[in-house]
Write a structure and sequence with these properties.
The structure holds 2 protein chains of 2 kinds.
Chain A: H1 26-38, H2 43-69, H3 84-108, H4 118-139, H5 143-150, H6 166-199, H7 203-213, H8 220-253, H9 265-291, H10 300-330, H11 334-346, H12 350-362, H13 370-373, H14 376-403, H15 418-441, H16 447-458
Chain B: E1 14-20, H1 23-35, E2 41-44, H2 52-56, H3 63-89, H4 102-128, E3 152-158, H5 164-173, E4 178-183
Antiparallel strand pairs in B: 1-3, 1-4, 2-3
Helix pairs in contact in B: 3-4
């Protein structure tokens, strides 16, 4: 080896990418991670916010029209009684699951790399669940009358929800999921809000962040209970996230329809949810780390790890597809066989089926290559394709099974209306609006946890970090 | 800085607020001040430190028991609710299926157990911590704004009637980089 030049260090292939890049103190971490909150919104933010608001406007129009005319303005009609409403519901819920997985399950497994992306992913969970909740609510047609069969309250009609129905389980599962995600997110945010309060320059900002920080003073007596409260919420979220998507899959799996009536649905739905959720985190994280100055905390190692999770969950989803087809053949049921090998592959919706196979089974195979895992453009486009693929999966499951069931006289094609598309695009607008506001007003990275990580890494000689305190 | 008495009977609490240079210095200092006989101690740090509970002489955390209680309450309430609705209040025989079907009750029982456990963890913490609490005398210290950012602080409440200067000296002797007296202001 020639004369070693300390300024140009060849990366050692055995040396892992650092979790924190550069030398840091608590103060520099604090200032660099809060910087994007104090900085005024740039042109890029306003441009994106404008687009998001326009899409949100579309949502308002679509919801108003749906409520005014009734759900007849949607494209679904018997036999395709469930369509965009349920596709988008499952898709959004799935996207939310990555947030809980990152914040809760990886916390329990003590994966240090989660710290840089958990706050971001948790916010995504919240907003995705809000979007998801809209669809079943609107699908009831008149949500203000739907309360009595959704929630058990003693109405004058003296009837109760059908507790043996997965749809009622869904109501409990999704509302619990939203509540717990919100509490978990806020609890984690409180110390960061105090940091925001104490580093704010103007009195108004200090007051506003001060209100949300609830007078947090970093008390040791508080931390002692706080740690347990946070850990237990994480512990509770872990079975919760598995149960939510399991119950969502029960909506399909407990019916007798060919293509739905399978026992593999719960694990395969959960894997798909994590798959699409990580893809969505990736889609937003790549531009966010670029523009918000988060590259020192969201390093290549984080991106690589996320790509690896997508590869693994993509393979699980692929296994799910293979098993569905195998069982359809092995069962000997002509309806199942026809559903999987004729209708899906060669029927009128076959394009969506093949797009699903391409995006969910072929695209993640890119991530076997380290070059692909560390190439930002490849990561970004692959993550978008995976999101498209997962939407196609839900479309395939919902529509193709419904539009061709047992009796040919019941067969009918499906086409969505402008209201369906507007609602879907509108929820993307709602999600983006909320997310952009989050990026503007709240630190995108869990500042306190990064400080904690720095202290931990300082004791761990295998991880390169900056100077210790 | 004597006890501030006025007509309303308000007695201002006095605190020593001290900053330590390092987290380990704070832990040592806290232990020493506690062993010197001070009871109302608290640390203020941007991150939870390992060994804080020991330095402050805290007992077992209460949250786990509260959460367990919440989980059990949630499960019991959920199952009782379903049982009441389906078996007692309005039993419906659908094609001879059992009126009381335990497997079908599992999901909602589980979800409500998680919901009540989670909410009791969250609200239990805020209740135990007595938050939100907009004002606390330690906020009187100018340096204290760093407690949420990069400062490691110890606060000691001075018992009413005892010497503030002695407390200040004791905290300084425990290794504080700087220490000051703050007095609660009346609102």
């Amino acid at each position: 080896m020639a004369a070693p030049n300390p300024a140009v260090v060849t990366p050692d292939p055995l040396e892992p990418f650092p979790l924190l890049e550069g030398k840091h103190t608590d103060r520099t971490i604090n200032d660099s991670l809060l910087d994007h909150v104090w900085r005024g919104a740039g042109k890029g933010w306003w441009a994106l916010f404008g687009c998001a608001l326009s899409a949100l406007g579309l949502l308002v129009i679509a919801i108003s029209w749906t409520l005014y005319k009734g759900i007849g303005v949607w494209g679904n009609n018997i036999p395709v009684g469930w369509a965009f409403g349920i596709i988008n519901f499952v898709w959004w819920i799935g996207i939310g699951h990555a947030g809980t997985l990152i914040s809760a399950i990886l916390l329990l497994f003590q994966q240090k790399w989660r710290t840089s992306i958990n706050r971001f992913a948790e916010a995504m969970t919240l907003f995705a669940v809000i979007c998801a909740l809209l669809f079943p609510l609107l699908h009831t047609g008149r949500p203000w009358f739907a309360a009595y069969w959704l929630m058990p309250y003693p109405s004058v009609q003296r009837i109760w929800p059908q507790f043996k129905s997965p749809l009622t389980w869904d109501v409990f599962a999704v509302s619990t999921y939203f509540t717990i995600s919100l509490l978990f997110w806020y609890l984690g945010l409180v110390p960061d809000l105090a940091a925001l309060r104490d580093s704010s320059k103007s009195k108004t900002k200090r007051l506003v962040y001060g209100i949300f920080a609830m007078g947090w003073r970093g008390s040791g007596r508080h931390w002692a209970e706080y740690k347990w409260s946070y850990l237990l919420l994480a512990g509770l979220s872990t079975p919760l996230v598995l149960s939510v998507h399991t119950i969502v899959s029960f909506d399909f799996a407990v019916s007798v329809l060919p293509g739905w009536h399978t026992t593999i649905f719960p694990p395969y739905f959960v894997a798909g949810a994590v798959f699409s959720g990580f893809a969505m985190v990736m889609t937003w994280m790549l531009p966010a780390r670029e523009f918000l100055g988060l590259k020192h905390v969201v390093t290549m190692k984080h991106l690589e790890n996320m790509a690896k999770v997508m590869l693994v969950t993509g393979m699980m989803v692929t296994y799910g597809y293979v098993m569905e087809h195998f069982i359809a053949w092995y069962s000997g049921s002509p309806y199942e066989y026809s559903e999987f090998f004729r209708v899906r592959q060669h029927g009128p919706m076959s394009l969506i089926y093949w797009l699903m196979i391409f995006c969910n089974c072929v695209v993640p195979q890119l991530f076997w290559s380290k070059r692909a895992r560390t190439n930002l453009l490849v990561l970004w486009f692959a993550s978008i394709l995976i999101n498209v693929g997962m939407w196609c999966e839900r479309f395939t499951i919902v529509i193709t099974s419904l539009h061709r069931d047992f009796i040919p006289s019941k067969w009918e094609n499906y086409s969505p209306t402008w209201v369906d598309f507007s609602l879907f695009i509108g929820t993307i607008g709602l999600f983006s609006t909320l997310f952009l506001l989050f990026l503007k007003f709240v630190p995108a990275v869990a500042v306190t946890e990064i400080k904690e990580l720095r202290h931990e890494l300082a004791h761990d000689p295998t991880e390169p970090v900056g100077e210790t305190h | 800085m004597s006890d501030a008495h006025d007509d309303s009977g308000f007695v201002a609490r006095r605190f020593v607020v001290a900053e330590f240079a390092t987290p380990s210095g704070l832990l040592d200092g806290t232990t020493r001040v506690r062993e010197a006989g001070y009871k109302e101690l608290d640390t203020h740090t941007p991150i939870p430190l390992h060994g804080l509970e020991k330095a402050l002489g805290l007992g077992r955390p209460k949250i786990p028991a509260i959460v367990l209680g919440g989980a059990i309450a949630g499960a019991v309430i959920a199952y009782a609710m379903i049982y009441f609705c389906n078996v007692i209040d309005f039993p419906i025989n659908v094609a001879g299926r059992p009126i009381h079907a335990p497997p079908a009750n599992i999901p909602i029982t589980f979800e409500l157990a998680v919901l009540l456990a989670g909410t009791s963890s969250f609200f239990g913490f805020f209740t135990l911590a007595k938050l939100p609490q907009p004002y606390h005398p330690v906020f009187e210290s100018e340096a204290f704004t760093r407690a949420a950012i990069d400062g490691y602080f110890l606060s000691v409440e001075i018992p009413a009637g005892s010497d503030a200067e002695k407390a200040l000296a004791d905290v300084r002797a425990a290794g504080a980089a700087s220490a000051e007296l703050v007095t609660e202001s009346e609102r």
